[in-house]
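anyone else get weird line breaks when pasting these?? whatever heres mine. first is seq + tokens for prot A
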Amino acid sequence: MSSTLLNIPYSVLDLATIVEGKTPIDTFPNSLTLARLAEEWGYTRYWFAEHHNMMNVGSSAPTILIGYIAGGTKSIRVGSGGVMLPNHAPLVVAEQFGTLASLYPGRIDLGLGRAPGSDQLTALAIRGENMNAAFNFPRDVEKLQTYFSADNVDSKVRAIPGEGLEIPIWILGSSTDSARLAAAKGLPYAFASHFAPAHFLEAIELYRQNFKPSEFLDRPYVISCINVVAADTDAEANRLATSVQQFIKGVVTGKRQLLPPPIDTMDGAWNYFEQEAVEQMLAYSIFGSPETVKNKMQAFVELTNIDEVMVTSHIFDHQARLRSYEVFAEVMKGN
């Protein structure tokens, strides 16, 4: 086993994906079960992504889910991957995460994105007259940093709780714009390569080249999120992966559906253009047996030189999903 993978922390990104025949009432306890096992298996952090108006994604209120998971685990870091900051007032975010960090000291991460996490009509419903908030993203990140700073004690507007707490801020992105911001502010950078692979390599290179050390971070730090479906055999992993392929086909075609059960083959389930689009979105995905996962992860780390990998796994059967995360942990630990 190469030492390369042994040196890479590994984490979970959870969208609280809702599968056919189930509801969020079923989904959230499954997330807690996974988080508890992920803690045992050596995962570093467990993040939720903010999405809205998506019938198959239950993580519309990540702050609440972070509290739920942190309260049900002991040591794993829990956070947002991320909070879409233009949807919220920075002061409210500071207070919410200040509360979480007060309840679970040293365990809360705040990942920030600038996208709406939904379509434009839904963004309008969330933001109202503040539809141009994305343009204020750099300034709003600075506001958050100010609210968390102990130096803000004499300000007329303070985040209580939040002020003086060390809550790591991460910049999330799917483009080069976010890379420039993370580099300029000397913050760690998490890239959404699990669904936006096109600018991934360019963005992390730009981030590293332009990184300015800060009080928060002295060298660049990159997390890449990838899709993983691991099983005991390649054939079983590829069969299970048809669920995420169907799921992404729904994104591509605008015909969203609850996460469907796997099928024996995608032949006949998509046309040529749908297949091309889905495979492009899933470019950074690993489907396979432990040996296949190890080889593909080794190649991915050598290509990207990432500091940490974050795994998301859209798998229909809960037990198969748990097994996938267990296999991945075993690979990363060299077992």
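and prot B, same format (seq, then tokens)
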Amino acid sequence: MRIHDRPIEQRIEALLALAREHAETFCSPSAALARERYLAAHPTRILVMKCMDGRIHLPHATRTPLGIITPFRNLGGIFDLGWPYLGEMLVDTVGEAIRAGHGALMIITYHFSRGERARGCAGFDCDATAALAHAREIRTQAQWLFGHDRQTVYPLVCGFETDGDALIVHGDADATLDIGELAPGDAPDLDRRVARLCPDMPGDIRRDLLPLLAGNLTHVASLRGVARDLDIEHREWVICIGRGFDFLHLPNTALIVGPYSPDLSEPIGTAAAIIDANMRAGRIPDDGFMLLASTPYRDVGVDRARAELKSRFLADFASRVIRREHPALAERMIRRTAVVHWPTRRLDLLDGTAPSRAN
């Protein structure tokens, strides 16, 4: 029985087990040493703006150690760098890299399917042209925020072709570098190709982009001729709100609403409508769905306490929106509130004893 067909209690336990497994893998000696070794050779900070779609698992698709890529995930990969909280997070993340003497590579992604338009991004009604246009708008905003010379922060638009897990790197014009069209023997030529496509990219940033492209080339080649389940029928049964969902890369399982937009009610309502439609169509059991709120923290004490309050606020806020817009669905809601210890990626469920405002 696939996870989507199990009773809700079993589905929730399977998801939490996945979170535990992710933390164990992240904290293993081999993973910790791999991160340390990788960052010593490739210190550029890598930020990725991406959709919540579970198929877009860039550490896996680029064969990069866990913890190297800093993800920003939201419904449809839709962002606006003018959003106050998002802008502050980006500036803080870039600031950490600059103070350490390193640059930052900001990869702005969109996704699509070559084999079937309907397997594209639902956030853009499967319109790859519209998704690409939005990614370019984010790049323009990034240049306004961090400088048009792009010598410290380099914003790079990349497509992700989900049928073959291939990256498509976009230059300023219409030129692209499609990893899906290359053979493993083309790996030594990647440096020259990137330099020609992005002539203003600083050498150190290009050096640290190349391992991602080379890893993706190897990954894509390994999938050729392998039968893959490309079914993308909506079967989501989890609404995640907040951050710290690195463990969630299961297709068609969760709808992730990042805490970035000033109006969170809209994406929460959209996510609830998708869950409701899934139940009505019989794609998932109607015995319940999970609302999971999460906030990362680094230090014990005030930092953790603030994360707990934030997670509880997000859970309360999302619950109010769902009860207001989908009262019948809200009767099937099972809430879980958590914090994530970011250095270990450990997800800890919270009890209900801390103060929070009434619903």
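btw re prot B: The chain has a mean pLDDT of 92. The radius of gyration is 20 Å.
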